[in-house]
Description:
- This protein has helices at residues 4-17, 22-41, 51-64, 70-89, 116-124, 131-146, 150-154, 184-201, 222-236, 242-255, 260-267, 272-275, 277-293, and strands at 161-162, 167-171, 177-181.
- By secondary structure, it is mostly helical.
- The termini are far apart.
Amino acid sequence: xxxxxxxxxFQIYLTLELRMSPNTVDAYLREVLKLEEFxxxxxxxxxxxxxxxxxxxxxxxxxxEQDLSPRTISRILSSLRSMMEFLILSGKRDDNPLQGxxxxxxxxxxxxxxxxxxxxxxxxxxxxxxxxxxxxRTLFELIYSCGLRVSEAVDLEMTHLYxxxxxxxxxxxxxxxxxxxxxxVAEHWLRIYLSEVRPRIVRPGFLTNTVFLNNRGKGLxxxxxxxxxxxxxxxxxxxxxxxxxxxxxxxxxxxGGADLRSVQEMLGHSDISTTQIYTHLNRNDLEQAHxxxxxxxKA
Length: 299
């Protein structure tokens, strides 16, 4: 079985060599531990692992979780393939039993997007009569205006704000750095938050460099952010998740005429094909406009 030392080395390999985000590293480690438990119950070791044994494991997982999606299976296989490659590099194995297994085909679904009116309704539904309400207005305005991931908003620090330049420094997946313009609306709310709200939330004697704080003066958690978003969305009559604001950011930029390469940079996508999914949404708008207004679109 994997020793604590080897497990730690695998974690370092994922983080430093493959430059994975902390959340992805945690997910990969969980999948590896599940397979290890399966091997333990079968009286087998990592050295015994072969393609038939892997197929039996995936079958057991499928039986346990009836609604297993192709994306989940793909994540499991990616996790285990990384583990096999690590074991080879570590001299624990000389072959990869996953090498001949095909990744399941993942159908690309279009991301959920809010209309501009829905975004405005959401933001306007945030009460501003409390410090935390003003914080939330700033937080969600920043996520929408800058296309931030939840983790990027949580991890944003005071030293990442360049107010005079109208820019923020963002560290995305794998610690990849990018610079994103604030825009006048986000800058307006951020200046109010930094000068009038955050100083009143900070607890005396407890110093933190995190931008967005909870009511105890500590960094706002993902869980707290998700809970607040859900409450506000229900009040506004809007359906979506926090990440929907990021999808809306990208879609509204492209609808407004931004080029794909610029949107890719602002989103922090390493591969432009990831950004291209938003052009499908834009294409749907074009098709609808053509169907509604072009004289040759009528039968």
